[in-house]
Amino acid sequence: MFCRTAGGELTTEALAADRALLSRTSTAERVAAILRTRIIEGYFPPGTRLAEDAIGSALGVSRNTLREAFRLLSHERLLTHELNRGMFVRTLTVEDLVDLYRVRRFVECGVIRTVTGPHPGLDAVAAAVADGEEALSSREWQALGTANIKFHQALVALAGSPRSDELMSGILAELRLVFHVMADPRRFHEPYLARNRQILEQLQRGDGPGAAEALDVYLRDAENQLVQAFADREAEEGA
């Protein structure tokens, strides 16, 4: 078992279902993409040890392929190797948090500011908002956090840039690791759901500049909450 999910535990059997995403000519990049997605979805929280044998068996890949995937994810600052202990999901610092939000404001606000009319990509933004509302009604807090991340992925996807999408995938995977600092995920994510819908509606009206201004305030509010959560945790650990 790897970590707790909304409905129980993620087992090697659940990860084995991802094997269908790999072909006979699977690459370390595909393995890394699967593990990155699992991190974004919250299945591997900070500090989780990634057991080579279990994961390699679940995905049906060689140890060398898996180690190369781990190397790629380490380069993305998602994993860290501890001598004589193995590979672990990285625990981020408050400095990491501040830098992530700096990049997010630059990228996300820059993209949506350009939306001044109908855009086919808004269907994905609307779907992410709907997923969040469904998760809220079902009281599935991990799913609510995942829907929020998909909302921001969909915003950046409006640029139609594979490079921006790749950049945002890594940023949001790191961000999911930051979210674990919040003791109450519902309290953190729920208020932003209404703000997601507001931004969606502004974009649907073609008011990209207004949506960008709202998102800038939104991201600064979220950053301040998370910085305070880091401070609270440090105070508790030092008590």
Attribute tags:
239 residues; mainly alpha; Four Helix Bundle (Hemerythrin (Met), subunit A); 3-stranded antiparallel β-sheet; two-stranded antiparallel sheet; 7% strand
Protein architecture, described:
This is GntR family transcriptional regulator. By secondary structure, the protein is mainly α. Helix content is 67%, strand content 7%. It has ten helices and five strands; from the N terminus they run ββααβααββαααααα. The chain has helices spanning 12-16, 28-40, 52-59, 63-75, 94-112, 122-138, 141-157, 162-179, 185-204, 208-238, and strands at residues 3-5, 8-10, 49-50, 79-82, 86-89. A three-stranded antiparallel β-sheet has the order 3-5-4. Strands 1-2 form a two-stranded antiparallel sheet. A hairpin with a 2-residue loop joins β1 and β2 (8-10). The chain is globular and about 55 Å long.
In short:
It is built from 10 helices and 5 strands, in the order E-E-H-H-E-H-H-E-E-H-H-H-H-H-H. The protein has helices at residues 12-16, 28-40, 52-59, 63-75, 94-112, 122-138, 141-157, 162-179, 185-204, 208-238, and strands at 3-5, 8-10, 49-50, 79-82, 86-89.
Helix fraction, binned, reads 55-70%
Kindly identify the CATH topology of the largest domain.
Four Helix Bundle (Hemerythrin (Met), subunit A)
Category by helix and strand content? mainly alpha
| Gross CATH architecture of the largest domain | Up-down Bundle
Q: Main sheet? A: 3 strands, antiparallel
Strand content: 5-15%
N- and C-termini, Cα separation: 32 Å
How would you write the strand order of the largest sheet? 3-5-4
The chain-level mean pLDDT equals: 88
The outline comes out as globular
Pfam families: FCD (PF07729), GntR (PF00392)
Domain HTH gntR-type: 25-92
Organism: Pseudonocardia hierapolitana
Protein name: GntR family transcriptional regulator
